Model the fold of this input.
Amino acid sequence: MNIMKNPKLLLCILMISALGINTPLSIIGIISQISQYFNTTISISGLYVSSFTFTIAIFGLFVPVFFSRFERKKTFIFILSIFAISNFALIFTKNIAVASFFRILSAIFYPAFISIALTVCEEIAPEGEKQDYITRILLGISVGSIVGLPITTGLGTIFGYQIAMSWIFAINLFSLVLIIIFFPNIDGKSKGYKMPLSDLKSKEFIISSVGIIMMPIGASIVYNYMPYFLQTVCHVYTYKLSIFLFIYGLFSIGGTWLGGKLIVLKDKATLIVFQLVCVFVFLSLYFSKDYLILTLILILIFGILDGMGYNLIQYIETSVLSQNLELANGIFLSILNGGIAIGIAIGGFLVDGFGVMSIFAAGILFLMFAFILLFYAITILKINLKYS
Done:
């Protein structure tokens, strides 16, 4: 099979596999069930959930570079096998320490899969379609974590934690079979890799990276406790909650697609205005909690913005490190998942200590930091953006 003559087939396989490997993130929707199953507090359950993203944040800095030298299909089979084994074990263990071990084990290899998938897409994309190909992989990530959320939430709230984990194992196993049967052999990089220290030490890279990590922290504080907010404040339960979260996921997928288009058209304006719109939505949610319809509409608007965030973070890193795509994509995953992990942890302690409504104030605070730093990086430092 000549993959260069059929890049859309390869893109489709990678997109579905990205969906499968991202489903473990969807267990945030059953945080109450996790707390009951392991007999722990909400904050400890939040740390268990965030261990996945926190591990990705650490290993995303160097694992993709290490795996870049190996043949792509073997790498993907190895990683998806680890995921399948780990999630199978999670179905049966009742010990949160053992469960955390398997969750962390699979997370170690996650960055290599996504980073290499994004790099391959940039390499095979026809001229003028690179951002569209990248967006498709990001859509796979979005579908896995966001559309997977209502499915996992529904199964978890109706049938319990073990059934929810069985669904995650099944989708991981399906992704593995898909790669084994259909994915072509692609050589890895044969030459050695040198870390571009001068780029990593630059003021542009540091300010931009600090700015964009504030985005997933602020969004994650709110997003990951949105099901809990809907249950405890808005009194939306069981199948109604799952249906709404599914609709939210569809809006988020649309947001990922929209983010890719807006970046190409107006990258600077999109990056700056994004933060302010998010702040407005969070502020509105804080004051509209007694009006269910308005609250649900605002959450759907946030769904669009949440989906856009994937594209914006990846775009900044690959713009600043345009000559080192695998490193840039690894850093993108570290920032995204590190921000999510920090957001989950902060949100858990806020919910336990100050109540669920405190998540909106914290989200606003971090997004305002993001706005200030990115405005400075874009307008004062004038960082190089690919489409400017």
